[in-house]
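Q: I'm writing a short explainer about Aminotransferase class V-fold PLP-dependent enzyme for a general audience and would like to include a description of its predicted shape. Could you first generate the structure from this sequence?
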Amino acid sequence: MSNPIYLDYHSTTPVDRRVAEKVYDYMVNNFGNSSSIDHIFGDRTQEAIKKAKRQIADLINSSPQEIIFTSGTTESINLVIQGLQPSRIIISPVEHKAVIDTCQAMAKKGLAEIIWLKVDKKARIDFNHLEKVCSQGADLLCIMGANNEVGNIYPIEEIGKIAQKYHIPFLCDGSQAVGKIPVNFEDWGITFLTISGHKLYAPKGIGALVIRKGYRLQPLIYGGGHQNGIRSGTLNVSGIVGLGEACYLRQLEMQEDESAIALKRNHLQSLLQSKIPQLVINGDTENRLAGNLHISIPNVPNSAIIARIRHKLAISTGSACSSATVSPSHVLRAMNLSDDLIEGALRIGVGKFTRDIEIEKSADIITNAVEKIFQLTSIYDADKFTRI
Ligand code: PLP
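A: Of course. Here's the predicted structure. Afterward I'll give you a sentence or two in plain language.
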């Protein structure tokens, strides 16, 4: 069987070979502990970390001193929300669960009150409501740079201005945005920005948190006092080198790569639209990530499609799977989409390694599955859909 096609780049990206080579070098040759101050192995890794901070800072226009390393965005978000100890938090309902569940855990303990922003059917934020709740004061505002399901790009600069106007610290989950669209930490009024290595062609388990000068967070992890005592634990030097290199490459190649990705996404979109006339495209198609295509096919449950194509094509339903149940996406629920659209929702993520031939094959795989399901539904009733 030929290799399955990967179109799930929002979930994770393959590591760029050039990044992997650097990572390998710092795993096998320059493997020193950056806390070792008595020999050259330590010196080399300290230098490498300094360089990585510079590369990351250059991509997002921050100062290298504002960067600390974490395992990824989930940890960074927890560090900000729990470490800042806000009592009134404004969040968008289409944030990642890392934000929503952390805030809800704080609320459950009676430590914080959550103010939910309003979003429309395209997951766009209601700016009048945002301004109104900010004017009533808060200790933290959480809005992502780009959405991991429908791909919306949020107007971070405008949001940052509102946050600054009302003196509210602004946490921007940048995991889907950094490396795909320009992000300007210094000029856009962001107080805390998160970056995930595995969303921009670096390894999993490495991320950065950018903390604006003058802000101090209570640590979640205590120990050797690494990273100014904010996040103890021996630094993941090879991961950090990989993240730095990936940011450097993104800075050089982002614009060209993302334009090419958008063309491929648009091609896939038109192929699907021409073959599946009832196809609905979700989210803010005017402002979405180049690689994002979020569709719903009414009357065709996404689980039925996935069951048919999973060995050939990797795309996602966006549903959250816990041990016993599969719950529909909270993002689509917050957008107030009909059950039909939610049940038929599929997230497709195109990336820089996606080839034209894969786009064409993917369109065929999806449309063939949809046709088969339609044929079967004229024989079987809708309840039997998921069992085919
Ligand atoms: N926030 C968003 C928008 C994401 O897409 C993800 C990853 O899926 C996360 C947070 C969690 O990031 P990480 O895997 O780096 O912890």
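A: For your explainer, you could say: The chain is about 40% helix and 15% strand.
Q: Perfect, that's easy to follow.
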